[in-house]
Amino acid sequence: MAEQGPEREIVHLLRKVTVEFGLRQAEFAARNGMHPTDVRALICLLDAGRSGTGATAGRLGAELGLNSAGTTSLIDRLERLGHLTRTRDARDRRRVLLSVTPQAVELGWAAFGPMIGSAEALLRGFDEVEVAAVRRFLLGFHAAVSAKPDQAGGTDRS
Amino acid sequence: MAEQGPEREIVHLLRKVTVEFGLRQAEFAARNGMHPTDVRALICLLDAGRSGTGATAGRLGAELGLNSAGTTSLIDRLERLGHLTRTRDARDRRRVLLSVTPQAVELGWAAFGPMIGSAEALLRGFDEVEVAAVRRFLLGFHAAVSAKPDQAGGTDRS
DNA sequence: AGATATTATCTCGCCGAGCGAGATAATAGG
DNA sequence: CCTATTATCTCGCTCGGCGAGATAATATCT
User: Fold this and answer.
1) Could you tell me which residue ranges the HTH marR-type domain spans (chains A, B) (predicted)?
2) Any chain A CB within 8 A of the CB of B51?
3) Which domains does chain B have, with CATH numbers?
4) Which of A28-32, A57-61, B77-81, B133-137 has the lowest average pLDDT?
5) Suppose A53 and one of A48, A66, A147, B16 were both cysteines; which one would form an S-S bond, judging by CB atoms 3.0 to 4.6 Å apart?
6) Measured between CB atoms, does B80 come within 8 Å of chain A?
7) Gap from B158 CA to C10 C1', in Å?
């Protein structure tokens, strides 16, 4: 009955990782008087900071799938907690620029640092070919997840 | 300026995947008159069914990090939508057994099928060593994420 | 057996995240 | 200038999820 190869196991594993990851995020959020969305917002802002993208309110809301009202209250919340600051953009004064405070960086690090550490330690036991394989898989999967849902194909479910 | 090796990139990639994955889940949920939590619940129930674990209300709530009140209303919601059925356990009549309807299986497949298909296609282009590497990484990372947060270590942040 | 503790789920009342609709302010184009 | 567009905010509301506690079924201890 339906030999389905080792690929299916990998996919379920990845899904399991994402579920567990989401749970940790939620726990961390609760522990710090926040909500899962707030944590994801901090992740996005830290990513934006790392890649030099100017983080604005609207952009953040779009990335999180919130509408403008929700975005405003999210930012209010994070500002109230001292995790970010609003600044009117001087070039285009409709925009609000967001910058995370050092305190928030510290917080983010506390949340993800240990996990990052473990993962790096794990990967240090891999040779170049193996690391490249993991990298290629994640890149490909990210592309697949980002793509709009279209073809389903007659794959065997379970 | 802290040469930080290829490991860090992998971790950020994985985080990106989980964020994107969460977004797709939320979109799918909204498209079907549900909430992100409901989708995660269906995932858990489908997983439980696959591994033969008896799915009970309490167990589901624990996996999702909800308290009993929230769990009850979640189940009410899914039952109302026809995605699961409640049955009192005959052995222990305090328990409520949950079983997903075929309709819900179909729905879950519509949500994750294309993604699973893409990932499998991707992995078919990998040789055994590479697949094994991906598998080992995901297993190790899952273990790391499941572990309680303890050591932080002085790793270089960014 | 009968009293008590424990477990599994449900009910009630409340808080607040996020939505829809629309207001407000700044920029761009005719 | 007058209008269209863009970016953010305000208001009112719905409903997911929490805390507290009720209820019912099962274990445990004399």
Assistant:
1) 7-143
2) no
3) 7-146 (1.10.10.10)
4) A28-32
5) A48
6) no
7) 47
